[in-house]
C-alpha cells in the first residue's frame, strides 16, 4: 500500500513538473516572438521616419535624370526630401533639390544630402557645403560634410580642386540663375516655333 502510494505521488510530481516545463517553454517562445515583433516594428519605424535609399530605377524629381545609388561614386551627390504627405523624392544634385521648389511651389518637411566622406545621410540645413572642382551629375560642384572640421580638412588637403567654404544661399543663387536661364531658353524656343507656324500659315494663305 505504501509502495503504491509512493508511486502515485511520484507520477503526480512528474505531471506537475512536465506541465510547468511546457508552460515555461511556451512563455519563452511567446516572449521571443514579442521581442522579434518589436524589433521589426522599430526597424520599420526607423525606415519610415528617416531618409530612404534610392532604387536603381529612381530618377531626379526635378530634371528626370538618373539618381545614383550609394555604391556609385556619383551617389555621394544624391539628395532627397520628404514631402508633407510623407512621400520621399530624390535628386541627382543639390541644385535640383532647390529648383523644384521654384517650379512646383512646394515645401519639404525634411531634406537630406550625403556626407562626402561617409556617404551617410545628413540633414541638409545642418550640413557644411564646399564648392570645388568636382564632377557632379548636374555640374553644380558642391560637396557636403556632416562636420565643419571634415570640410576644413578636405579644403586643406585638396588645394588642386580649388575648394572653398560655401553656403546654401550661394547654391540657391546659382540654382536660380540656371533655372531662369533654362526658362528663358524654353520661352524663346516656344516663341520661335510659334513664329515658324505663323510664317507657314502666311505662305499657305499667299498661295491661295
Description:
This protein has 208 residues and is of the alpha+beta class. The chain has a domain at 73-184: Beta-Lactamase (2-Layer Sandwich), CATH 3.30.450.410. Helix content is 52%, strand content 14%. The chain is built from four helices and seven strands, in the order H-E-E-H-E-E-E-E-H-E-H. The chain has helices spanning 2-49, 94-104, 148-157, 168-207, and strands at residues 79-83, 88-91, 108-114, 121-123, 128-131, 142-145, 164-165. The strands form two sheets. The chain has a four-stranded antiparallel sheet. Strand 3 and strand 4 form a beta hairpin. The model is unreliable at 34-46 (pLDDT under 50).
How would you summarize what this structure contains?
With 208 residues, the chain is α+β, with helices and mostly antiparallel strands. It has four helices and seven strands, in the order αββαββββαβα. The chain has a domain at 73-184: Beta-Lactamase (2-Layer Sandwich).
CATH class of the domain at 73-184: Alpha Beta
Average pLDDT level: 83
How many alpha or pi helices? Answer: 4
E-strand count:
7
Spatial extent as radius of gyration: 32 Å
**Which percent band covers the strand fraction?**
5-15%
Q: Please give the alpha-carbon distance between the first and last residues.
A: 130 Å
Which ranges are low-confidence, i.e. pLDDT below 50, for 5 or more consecutive residues?
34-46
The strand order across the widest sheet is 2-1-3-4
Here the CATH topology of the domain at 73-184 equals: Beta-Lactamase
Question: What is the 3D shape?
Answer: globular
Under the CATH scheme, the architecture of the domain at 73-184 is 2-Layer Sandwich
Structural class, by secondary structure, is alpha+beta
Helix content: 40-55%
Describe the main β-sheet briefly.
4 strands, antiparallel
Output the helix-strand order: HEEHEEEEHEH
Amino acid at each position: 500500500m505504501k509502495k503504491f502510494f509512493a508511486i502515485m505521488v511520484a507520477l503526480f510530481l512528474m505531471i506537475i513538473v512536465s506541465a510547468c516545463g511546457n508552460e515555461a517553454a511556451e512563455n519563452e517562445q511567446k516572449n521571443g516572438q514579442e521581442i522579434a515583433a518589436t524589433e521589426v516594428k522599430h526597424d520599420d519605424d526607423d525606415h519610415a521616419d528617416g531618409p530612404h535609399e534610392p532604387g536603381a530605377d529612381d530618377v531626379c524629381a526635378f530634371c528626370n535624370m538618373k539618381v545614383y545609388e550609394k555604391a556609385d561614386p556619383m551617389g555621394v551627390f544624391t539628395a532627397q526630401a520628404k514631402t508633407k504627405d510623407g512621400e520621399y523624392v530624390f535628386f541627382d544634385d543639390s541644385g535640383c533639390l532647390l529648383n523644384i521648389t521654384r517650379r512646383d511651389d512646394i515645401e519639404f518637411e525634411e531634406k537630406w544630402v550625403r556626407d562626402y566622406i561617409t556617404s551617410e545621410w545628413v540633414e541638409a540645413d545642418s550640413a557644411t557645403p564646399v564648392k570645388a572642382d568636382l564632377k557632379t551629375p548636374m555640374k553644380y560642384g558642391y560637396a557636403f560634410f556632416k562636420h565643419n572640421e571634415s570640410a576644413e580638412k578636405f579644403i586643406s588637403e585638396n588645394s588642386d580642386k580649388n575648394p572653398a567654404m560655401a553656403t546654401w544661399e550661394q547654391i540657391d543663387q546659382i540654382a536660380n540663375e540656371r533655372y531662369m536661364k533654362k526658362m528663358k531658353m524654353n520661352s524663346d524656343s516656344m516663341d520661335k516655333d510659334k513664329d515658324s507656324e505663323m510664317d507657314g500659315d502666311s505662305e499657305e494663305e499667299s498661295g491661295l
